[in-house]
């Protein structure tokens, strides 16, 4: 494994498969993300405007670079259906050299 201080994983939940694939396609086509994985059947329970809400969602796992985070956040906020979308970025500690090289090459095209 190789250290990966310049990479981030961004988690975003969204209401439908169609919206998840639309967002993922835009992020990848605009080279803001090297890859977006979509996980289905995510049950979110959260508080919103004084109410406890439950919603089946789709979770995007977005692989990107540290220097693209602001642009990723801006684009998600522009495209997301929720007033306050979940956008959580975590540092990628390490990854296989070949995968990290692929992310770099994909984002730098």
Plain-language structure description:
The protein is elongated and about 45 Å long. The mean pLDDT is 96. By secondary structure, it is an alpha+beta fold. The strands form two sheets. A four-stranded antiparallel sheet has the order 3-4-2-5. It has one domain (2-107): Alpha-Beta Plaits (2-Layer Sandwich), CATH 3.30.70. It has three helices and six strands, in the order ββαββαββα.
Brief sketch in words of this structure:
The chain is 32% helix and 41% strand. The protein has 109 residues and is an alpha+beta fold. A 4-stranded antiparallel β-sheet has the order 3-4-2-5.
Helix-strand layout with pairing:
Layout: E1 2-3, E2 7-14, H1 17-29, E3 35-48, E4 51-65, H2 69-79, E5 88-91, E6 94-95, H3 97-107
Antiparallel strand pairs: 1-6, 2-4, 2-5, 3-4
């Amino acid at each position: 494994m190789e250290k990966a201080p310049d990479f981030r994983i961004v988690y975003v939940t969204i209401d439908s498969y169609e919206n998840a694939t639309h967002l993922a396609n835009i992020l990848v086509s605009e080279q803001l993300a090297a890859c977006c994985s979509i996980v289905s059947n995510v049950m979110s329970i959260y508080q919103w405007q004084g109410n406890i809400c439950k919603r089946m969602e789709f979770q995007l796992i977005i692989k990107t670079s540290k220097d693209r985070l602001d642009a990723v956040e801006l684009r998600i906020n522009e495209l997301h259906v929720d007033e306050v979308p979940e956008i959580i970025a975590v540092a990628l500690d390490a990854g296989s050299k070949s995968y990290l090289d692929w992310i770099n090459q994909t984002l730098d095209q």
